Amino acid sequence: MSFIDQETPKVQVCVIFHSPYGHTAKVAQHIAQGAEQGGAEVHLISVTAPQWDLIDQADVIVMGCPTYMGSLTSALKQFMEDSSKRWLARTWQGKIAAGFTNGGGLSGDKLAVLQQINLFAMQHGMLWAGLPFMPTGRSPSDINRMSSFLGLMTQSDNASVEVTPPEGDLETARKFGKYLAELRLKQINI
Asked: What is the largest CA-CA distance in the chain?
């Protein structure tokens, strides 16, 4: 069999999250759906029970948590600290990384959380993939309504997980997951 005839390996995506109330888990599930639509094999992993072997084998690592008091949650921070042996060994170097966060407020300093996740990924030597979608408006049904480009921002508006985040935010999450899987496929096929 020639190199050209070989089947392209399936992209491995890990969506790692912390979600005390369920909103961030809901966003993570929509990112995963999009990545699956993009042809990836996806693993949803809570930071409370990290599956290090799966994460180490992933091509794409997407990390997210709620924005609490303008910062990451302590559980995601603990996950980051627990990865220090991987940092030293450069285990994740060259992998695609991306971030997402959810909060009750429209802003709530979500950018600070994405910056913290981005810096963590850079410490590991990962390749950051931001949110590439132009905002289509500001209503809850619009794509990238918060005009975020560093990563995905969603809003729960301090409402129940049954009704929030709104459909536009969830559709942005699906599109983001698909984009990340397809981005890795492009790298493989170069």
From this structure: 56
How far apart CA 10 and CA 144 sit, in angstroms, is 28
Between 102 and 9, residue with greater pLDDT: 102
Instruction: Determine how many CB atoms are found less than 10 A away from the CB of residue 186.
Output: 8
Helix (H, G, I), strand (E, B) or coil at 59: coil
Q: Are 166 and 22 in contact (CB under 8 A)?
A: no
Give the global pTM. Answer: 0.94
User: H-type helices in 22-131, by residue range?
Assistant: 23-37, 52-57, 74-82, 84-89, 110-123
CB neighbours of residue 160 within 10 Å: 11
Q: Is the pLDDT of residue 8 over 80?
A: no
For the stretch 116-130, pLDDT in tens is: 999 999 999 999 999
Closest-CA residue to 20 (of 134, 156, 142)? 156
Measured between alpha carbons, how far is 90 from 53 in angstroms, rounded to an integer? 14
Q: What is the chain's mean pLDDT, rounded?
A: 94
